[in-house]
What we know:
Blueprint: E1 3-11, H1 16-20, H2 26-48, E2 54-57, H3 59-64, H4 66-74, E3 78-81, H5 94-112, E4 118-119, H6 130-136, E5 141-142, E6 153-157, E7 160-162, E8 165-167, E9 170-176, H7 185-189, E10 192-194, E11 197-199, H8 205-222, E12 225-232, H9 234-237, H10 240-255, E13 259-260, H11 263-274
Parallel strand pairs: 1-2, 1-12, 1-13, 2-3, 4-5, 5-9
Antiparallel strand pairs: 6-9, 7-8, 10-11
Helix pairs in contact: 2-4, 8-10
Amino acid sequence: MSRHLVCLTFDFDTTSLFTASGLTSPSALSRGEFGALASRRILDLLHRYGLRATWFVPGHTIMSFPREFTAVVEAGHEIANHGFTHRSMAQLGRDEQEQELLDANALIRQHTGADPVGFRAPGWELAEQTVPLLIEHGFQYDSSMMASDHQPYFARVGDHVDPRGIRFGTPSPLVEVPVSWSLDDFPVFEFWPTDGGVIPGLRSTAEVEANWFDDFEYLRRSVPWGVLVLTLHPFVIGRGHRMLMLERLIVRLLNAGAVFTPIHEAVREWQGDQR
Length: 275
């Protein structure tokens, strides 16, 4: 029987994305603060359609916006680890990475009563030590890599990079639930000056909606079982015209047979098929 899953995932970064980038002016922080306001809109939308999502939450957000975080927890959504300070794991040493994981886990456990089973690296940047650390600390899945589109796979450890080629390591027990920049709201919508230029963003919602729906349509036509992961940021997707787009997309996907589920349930379903 065909079954095609969609995971709505929300990187609830709020101000942590800006502080980790060294942007601490009132104007910069206000952009992240809007994500706290927008989280309520998103929760209302998900409630109206009876959908459960996965929220990747940095410890920084839990500390800064406890009321908004508690609302997500009380709405019954999956809470997953997104580090503590939103710093790139690729720029941290092993001990610093571990501390990011453990500090965020402790806060999530304090508010939910359980350790998270999933992780997403800030900026999707993993380091060589990250996967072994996730395994060591009991995580079941990561959602930061892009070696597939519709099928989860087991993350490898021990890859050796050489200018003449890569010697691939061995699969680990950690399930990788793949993502894509083309299914992320930040690059298409968010205006972002950088040292190397400007990410213009501000794309038409109609264009983005069409792209995202077509990715699901390709999934539906191509495989009997698969999962499409959308990566959304409340301070980005929460603007009015984008919220209308998100609702239209949800309706179209439901009418096309999509089954919405948090990532941890998609992982459990995939693992069952592997037996």
